[in-house]
């Protein structure tokens, strides 16, 4: 599957708000969004005109896609699922996105960003209901038990006890 490989901080600047795509860097003074407060590119500093309703909706959609690290096709599939559910489509969409395994790992504090959480899941560090799951888009249900694998715990302990030069 394809993935976004460009500069993450440009995405924050384009949306005009911090999306916390880089984890702890977004909270520090090194964040480019803080340094440059304008959109990326040649015309980033030009005056902003009043946006149409369509432009506002598009920007909001792009923010959500970028925050959760989805591409257009996968986002469209989630939207169609949300549309089929009873209730407000926008709320259903966010519920579906919040129940992804990579997002749950990020919310539990095991990773500093959703990208890092996605990598932890892909590297098979978590089990759901005592079954190994390495799919970041896995839909976690209420009552599911998410655990860090025993081998992964041992790796973490080794990192904390290793000499300073290997950290």
> What is the helical fraction, as a range of percent?
40-55%
What would you report as the Rg, rounded to the nearest angstrom? 19 Å
**Helix/strand order:** HHHHHHHEEEH
In the predicted model, the low-confidence regions spanning at least 5 consecutive residues are: 162-167
The share of residues in extended strands comes to under 5%
Q: What gross morphology would you assign?
A: flat
Distance N to C terminus: 31 Å
Going by helix content, strand content and strand pairing, the class is: mainly alpha
- Order of strands, main sheet, comes to 2-1-3
Mean pLDDT: 80
Number of strands: 3
**Total number of helical segments?**
8
Described by strand count, sense and barrel closure, the largest sheet is: 3 strands, antiparallel
What oligomerization state is this entry in? single chain
Briefly characterize the structure.
This protein has about 170 residues and is mainly alpha-helical. Helix content is about 50%, strand content about 5%. The chain has eight helices and three strands, in the order αααααααβββα.
């Amino acid at each position: 599957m394809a993935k976004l490989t460009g500069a993450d901080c440009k995405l924050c600047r384009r949306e005009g708000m911090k999306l916390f795509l880089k984890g702890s860097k977004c909270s520090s003074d090194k964040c480019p969004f803080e340094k440059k407060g304008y959109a990326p590119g040649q015309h980033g500093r030009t005056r902003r005109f009043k946006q149409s309703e369509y432009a506002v909706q598009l920007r909001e959609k792009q923010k959500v896609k970028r925050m959760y690290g989805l591409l257009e096709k996968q986002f469209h599939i989630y939207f169609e699922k949300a549309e089929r559910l009873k209730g407000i489509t926008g709320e259903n969409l966010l519920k579906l996105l919040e129940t992804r395994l990579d997002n749950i790992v990020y919310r539990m504090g095991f990773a500093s960003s959703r990208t890092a959480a996605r990598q932890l899941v892909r590297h098979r560090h978590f089990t759901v209901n005592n079954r190994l799951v390495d799919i970041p888009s896995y839909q976690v249900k209420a009552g599911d038990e998410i655990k860090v694998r025993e081998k992964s715990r041992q790796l973490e302990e080794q990192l904390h006890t290793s000499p300073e030069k290997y950290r």
